[in-house]
Amino acid sequence: MTDAYAQAGVDISAGNTAVNLMKAAVNATHNDHVLTGLGSFGSLFSLPANFKEPILVAGSDGVGSKLLLAIAAQDHTTIGQDLVAMVVNDILAQGAQPLFLLDYIGTNHVNPQQIATIVGGIAQACQLTKTALIGGETAELPALYGKNHYDLAGFAVGIVEKKDLLDGSKVQVGDVVIGLAASGLHSNGFTLARKILLTDQQKKWADLSKKTQAALLNPTKLYGPTVLPLIDKQLIKGAAHITGGGLLENLPRAFGSDVQVELDLTSWHIPMIYQTMAQLGKLTFHDLLRTFNLGIGFCLIVAPEHVTQVLNQLAAHNEEAHVIGHIKKASPSTPTRLTMIGEAHYGD
């Protein structure tokens, strides 16, 4: 018997196979709060009972055009971590520990093994951040996506005590900004990076050096495991996830309008790939600053008396971190609320 839906381009059987292949990885992320398994219409999750004034923090995001490089490299093993990191790092910036995540995969054609690999990466990252992967959706849309193409999106909910919420109100003049190293470009700026490194240079993925490939495909770092213990100890006054818009646009989101940040560009080495892109693409430093993370993936704002303790604890968890700036009184002449001193240094 022929399957009319399959002939139209949607293979339900392949979708069912993909679900079966991913089931073990998904179930490994579950805890006692997860009340439903795969297959239910809605996913049920019971809230922890040890919170006095719980605030739920929700976030959603995708991976963006970095997916095109994963597709070109035929490597889908770590793109799932990019998805999880982009979502849970955002809610971490508000002080929240993630509770659960749901994913969405839209694809030209369901390849069960490929889908299982992608979800396996999502599940592994969820385990590392103690996030339950409680549901999701896989949609086969041959009329929407090009051959071999797919898209990813994620939605997560976290929780934080009201008194521990990082909303910018605790940050004051004299506080110190600590920058946590990025693991690569993370998941932002890839439209520009691809244009400079591939299309303008008329290169294919295989033409790039292994070092450049690694810098581009390294998954977005998961900061929760090292940052949440610091938040629990009330050592953090503000935080920022450095994503689209770079340090220029993301760091000021971590504090109120009465203060601004002064960054010391000499305090860390900017990875060489950014200098390469600046030269090839004739980019200004301002272009780099508002497009890429420049080697700093997450920022913490702490009181001066806690800097040493925070740096020591980060070092104990092998987290590379630098004091990169200070909080100053806001100036009407600085609309971006970010100023810079020193000259940027490049080096790996």
Automatic annotation (TrEMBL):
Catalytic reaction(s) noted: 2-formamido-N(1)-(5-O-phospho-beta-D-ribosyl)acetamidine + ATP = 5-amino-1-(5-phospho-beta-D-ribosyl)imidazole + ADP + phosphate + H(+)
UniProt KW Ligase keyword: yes
Keywords: ATP-binding, Cytoplasm, Ligase, Nucleotide-binding, Purine biosynthesis
Membrane-crossing segments per the record: none
Catalytic activity, EC: 6.3.3.1
PurM-like N-terminal domain location: 56-160
Pathway it works in: Purine metabolism; IMP biosynthesis via de novo pathway; 5-amino-1-(5-phospho-D-ribosyl)imidazole from N(2)-formyl-N(1)-(5-phospho-D-ribosyl)glycinamide: step 2/2
Keyword flag Hydrolase: no
PurM-like C-terminal domain: residues covered: 172-330
Primary location class: cytoplasm
Subcellular location: Cytoplasm
InterPro entries per UniProt: PurM-like_C_dom, PurM-like_C_sf, PurM-like_N, PurM-like_N_sf, PurM_cligase
MF-aspect GO terms: phosphoribosylformylglycinamidine cyclo-ligase activity
Annotated family: Belongs to the AIR synthase family.
Protein name from the UniProt record: Phosphoribosylformylglycinamidine cyclo-ligase
Originating species: Periweissella beninensis
